[in-house]
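BACKBONE GEOMETRY TOKENS:
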Amino acid sequence: MTTLDGRRVYTRADLMAEHGIGRSTLEKWYRERASNGHPEPAGTVGSQLVWDAGAWDAWYAARGSRAVPPGLVTRDELAARHGVSRHRLKQLWADRAANGHPGVAHREGKALYWDEDAWTAWYRALEERPPEEGPDDLVTLADAARILGLAQTSVTVYPRRPPAGWPEPARVEPLGGGRVRRLYRRRDILAYAARARA
């Protein structure tokens, strides 16, 4: 329990733990406090803003039917609970017509919420699907980024500063101007992804 001057207060971490609300939603509610009546901070504990627990609970209860139903999660919460990057989650959502991604179960302003049980079952089935390409196929660094659900720019440094477990290229092809193209086995990239998620 967090206290300030002897009274019970909430940090955002407390609110996330106690009410199961995502950080992005809490930050949004606070930003929009002029229109939604969100309580002002009671002060700070360390470097964190805190809110009077009684005032915050009363405000939250008054939201009534606008409160997020239990069992629903934001994209941030899915990323944290399943070890998937936000970029990858956005890709999966954008490709929902082809991959069967579950629909949104609730909207709170611009915040989207999914039924966690339905999403988890769908994602597990997606991960268990056999890859469409062969495991020994060679892929470029850009293809590896796509397989990992990362932005292409985030993996361009891997050949010079590889993260732990990053595979060696299966083949290196010289290009003009002293540049090279590194090709990796798909199975090595998938194995790296599995280790990174573990």
Q: What stands out?
A: The chain is about 45% helix and 20% strand.
